[in-house]
Amino acid sequence: MRTSVVVRVAVATAAVLAGMTALAGPAGAMRPAPTHSRSDFEIDFMADTIDHHFLALKMAQMCLDKATPAPPGSDTRLRELCQANLEDQTREIAKLQSWLRDWYGISKRPMLPPNGDDMLAMLRSRRGEAFDMAIAQAFIQHHLKFLPRADRCRDTASHDVLRNLCDTMFRTQRAQIESFERVFDQHAAMPQSGPSQA
Length: 198
Known about the structure:
Blueprint: H1 2-24, H2 26-29, H3 36-66, H4 78-104, H5 116-124, H6 128-156, H7 160-188
Helix pairs in contact: 3-4, 3-5, 3-6, 4-7, 6-7
């Protein structure tokens, strides 16, 4: 009789521990943030970032179509930077969409943010080296606007995977700002020739 009681207690204890492990593991990671304020932050951040990245995708696609070949001796190639942005932010949009759906039951389709159409129209009007300088400057401004949001996310988000992604985005975009600045400076130092606008 005593043995059966001990066995039942052991089984019950194992069940409790298994439940605690499940909460701490992947199943727990699928749940919303523990407070309304944290949940609201994550939802707003992910939705805004999807739209912000969507504009960057449009910019990168235009860059791949219109950018001129890299100047002789250049160690920074504009098309390669734009291709990297296209790949990084396509992947990040997919992650953020999946987390919004899994954690909060929200289906989010990318949309251009306010003034996104104006930015793209300005870029479409540029040609040649003037386009290269305009797209480099546009990416610099675009990334600079995002850095404070990503930095806050590193401290505020509840989900580890989201905080880690925000840290990656912060470091990647800060490095890309420096690369786009080099592109801008290289083209600014070159003599401009031909019409710069459509």
